[in-house]
Amino acid sequence: MAIKTSKYTGGNGRKQLPSPYVAHVATTEIVEHVFTEAVAAADILELCYLPPNCRITDLRIQTVGTGAATLTMGLMSGDVGSLSAARTIGTELFNAQATPTTVQAATLANLAALMSSPMPRSIGVQFSANVAANPVNKIMAIITYAST
After folding, report:
1. Residues 97, 71, 138, CA angle at the centre, nearest 5°?
2. Is the pTM of this model over 0.90?
3. Which of 70, 73, 76, 135 could form a disulfide with 93 if both were Cys (CB 3.0 to 4.6 A apart)?
């Protein structure tokens, strides 16, 4: 198992997500990951992170070219950007969801159960099958979050 990073979680030039400065005012970001590197079924893709003291209020995902797999999406253990193989992924957002070729929203019950944290938290994705490296293969998410 390996941790794969995205432009939001890997390297020194990683893209920053906006941090809301006013409590309870929603911020929305479109996150896109193009599979320029293959991801094996056991790998975890660290897609993006949730800024400190924020809760997700809406999350929608869609995939292109990822095949007939399922995906699990949730919060990851460890520090944002860490490549430690000891990191794990939760099932708080999607659990064994068929890879959506149309927009799929996380349930309100799942989002309501997530609490804010004073530390940034990684949002990871794990596929049940390999995803090939191909510039047309991608996962997109629209994530809306607010400071608590």
Report:
1. 115
2. yes
3. 73
Residue carrying the six token digits 């030039």? 13
Counts for the chain of helices (H) and strands (E), in that order = 1, 9
Domain membership of residue 20 (yes or no) is no
Q: How far is CA 12 from CA 7, 31, 96, in A?
A: 10, 18, 32
The C-alpha atoms of residue 74 and residue 88 are separated, in whole angstroms, by 10
Which residues lie across from 75 on neighbouring strands? 123
Domain-embedded: residue 18? no
Per-residue H/E/C for 114-136: CCCCCCCEEEEEEECCCECCCCC
Instruction: Identify the CATH number of the domain in which residue 75 sits.
Output: 2.60.120
pLDDT tens-digit profile of 13-45?
A: 677 788 887 888 899 999 999 999 999 998 999
Q: Are 60 and 97 contacting, i.e. CB atoms less than 8 angstroms apart?
A: no
Residue 87 is part of which domain span?
Answer: 3-11+26-147
**Count of domains for the chain:** 1
Check if the beta carbon of residue 147 is closer than 8 Å to that of residue 20: yes
